[in-house]
Amino acid sequence: MAHDHDVLIIGGGPAGLTAGIFTARAGLDTVIVNDGEPLLRRNGHLENYPGFPGGVNSRLLLDMMADQAKRSGCSRQEARIVDLEQASGGFRASTAEDSTVTAQFVVAATKNTVDFLSDIEGLKIRSRGKDFVESDDRGRTGVEGLYAAGRLAMQPYQTIIVAGHGGSVGVAVVEDSDVNFYHDWTAPEGYFTGRGRDVPPGCEEISPEERRDREAESLEVMQTYFANPHPEEPTQHPNVRGKD
Length: 244
Ligand SMILES: Cc1cc2nc3c(=O)[nH]c(=O)nc-3n(C[C@H](O)[C@H](O)[C@H](O)COP(=O)(O)OP(=O)(O)OC[C@H]3O[C@@H](n4cnc5c(N)ncnc54)[C@H](O)[C@@H]3O)c2cc1C
Prior knowledge:
This protein is of the alpha/beta class. 27% of the residues lie in helices and 22% in strands.
């Protein structure tokens, strides 16, 4: 039976968004379903994410990651997944609003939320005060087609690490799918073909003109993002908010 999507990513924090960037760029139809706020919205100022020597507003970084996932081809729904079950060689997820989403592959990237996974036989949950999903280092859970990414997969609690893990899990999904894939690389013209090689699947070579066009666009896009301070304040811890 055909699924609604190739890949369903549950959770739109740094891990889920980065997984989606890789699966969508590889041509897999990817939907990200998120409910609530990624934890990084609580951060004061993000100073350990490589590439930003002066630090970066974490809410801006999340906006940029979400935009990049969209630009890579991900669709997105704001909904809470309340149940996941295996169905027709894939998975059927139910939302709190009683709609369903089906997909061949599922990446769970929900930090410590595991209640929706209770119907998945064979999945190992580890509780250490908070709940985590056991998986190998590429996020494979032992249940075919189901992956865990980021903090949920017991990764260290830093943004770059959960984002990188999300990317690694996204590439694992691509490798486990039917997509013909080598690397997600953009190389300058001639890098492969200049050595008599075909451009490998998943890679592209771009001409100097195309490279200049892309750089010009990236400068424009980044100047827009960084033109003004981000309008939103950090989200406070719920226990502190409760004291207002
Ligand atoms: C106050 C604070 C400051 C921090 N500062 C730093 C810092 O300076 N540097 C640093 O590296 N890291 C920092 N972090 C840590 C960083 O925020 C986390 O490492 C990171 O957010 C974890 O990413 P994730 O994608 O695994 O989970 P999350 O970002 O939490 O994303 C999970 C998403 O899934 C959604 N979700 C959950 N259940 C469901 C469901 N059933 N259906 C649909 N969606 C669901 C959640 O609402 C959320 O949007 C900080 C964290 C906090 C709290």
